[in-house]
Amino acid sequence: MNPATREQLMKVSTATLCTALFKRGLRNQFIQDVRPLNPGLPNMVGEAFTLRYMPAREDLNPISVFLDRGHPQRKAVEECPEGAVLVIDSRKDARAASAGGILVTRLMKRGVAGVVTDGGFRDSPDIAKLGFAAYHHRASAPTNLTLHQAIDINVPIGCGDAPVFPGDVVVGDAEGVIVIPAHMADEVAAEATEMTVFEDFVQDMVLEGRSILGLYPPTDERSRSDFATWRQARGR
Questions:
Q1: CB 143 within 8 A of CB 99
Q2: Coil, strand or helix at 117
């Protein structure tokens, strides 16, 4: 990822990014029904590295599978690149965990930017204390083997109804997680940055008692002039 793009995405909201993608015809890039375990962290930004689960078949999913160093869940944790985001397709099923505190801690220590599942994490109180970006649907104590069989890494997946391709740019904030197609990440980040500056201006004006009519969107000359003055005064 372009370092300038990463820096821009650290400073914009998923809401603003949703609007920028909507303008380009993409309406389903926000991962549904996931939330941060630690909402006070800075934005999570990184390229997607994926793990896919399928429904577990009991004869293929005993506890002994974890002895295999090639187990896809273990490989994903050890191979997810530094600065990337591990995105897990758990079929929106949080009845069993996608991972737990030890694996999430390992991701953090390896320099991964964050982890997202449309299922649940076990040891979630411990994960919430790590200061590491982690998003899930809800807490789930049962081991993943109960319901999930890890089957693929770094393949296209669905996560919370959003399509995720390896290398897509994943951004998370206190509201949730959005997936930006890799080929448009630079332009979306630049537009979202400009949108954020304007929306900050609008918020200031509304707090002063200004009507949104003609202001948001800026359809009159007064609004455009006031924005230019506001922006210059703030060096933005």
A1: no
A2: strand
Whether the Cβ atoms of residue 52 and residue 157 lie closer than 8 Å to each other: yes
Per DSSP, 64 falls in state G
* Angle, helix 72-79 to helix 101-109, in steps of 10 degrees: 30
- Give pLDDT tens digits for 191-209: 999 999 999 999 999 999 9
pTM: 0.95
Comparing CA positions, the residue from 119, 114, 148, 149 lying closest to residue 32 is 119
18-29 pLDDT, tens digit per residue, is: 999 999 999 999
Print burial letters for 27-45: b (CB count within 10 Å at least 16), e (below 16): eebbbeebebbeeebebbb
Tell me the three-class secondary structure of 136-182, residue by residue: ECCCCCCCHHHCEEEEEECCCEEECCEEECCCCEEEECCCCEEEECH
234, containing H or E segment: helix 221-234
